[in-house]
Amino acid sequence: MKYGNLIVEKKEKEFLKELMALAKYYRDNTYKASIEKLNEELKHAKIITIGEMPVDVIRLDSVVTIETPYAVQKTYQIVTPDKSDMRKNKISILAPMGLALFGYAEGDEISWQFPMGVSSIKILQVLQEEKKAVNGKYNEQHSGISQ
């Protein structure tokens, strides 16, 4: 792990904890296991301010290129559940893949439980969409993706 622990922005951690609390009623065991694993990792995460966030750490709205076994590369944007749309490669933060990637950095390799079993993922690239905080919640700025 590039930074030793997950790196999480303070307000995003609180937002994610609220989402995970609501999602604990999911019936799917893979989702439950993913939420429990991220909850455990958040206990040891380095919590920092938005100004301290490294640009290569995955967070809400990050665009992430990963490599899965057999050299399959895919690019996803990590979004809130209401913006999830797999046709547009927008994956919910509460999906097993979103939970697996959150807080990790470019170059990290992780192993996670997915519906089809345990799989490894290598994070090849992380791009950030600019954000601004409004009343403690994040809104997208329409200036595109920056790094």
TrEMBL record:
The keyword Protein biosynthesis applies. Residues 54-126 form the Transcription elongation factor GreA/GreB C-terminal domain. The keyword Protein biosynthesis applies. It comes from the Bacteria. GO terms for molecular function: translation elongation factor activity. Signal peptide: none annotated. This is GreA/GreB family elongation factor. It comes from Autumnicola psychrophila.
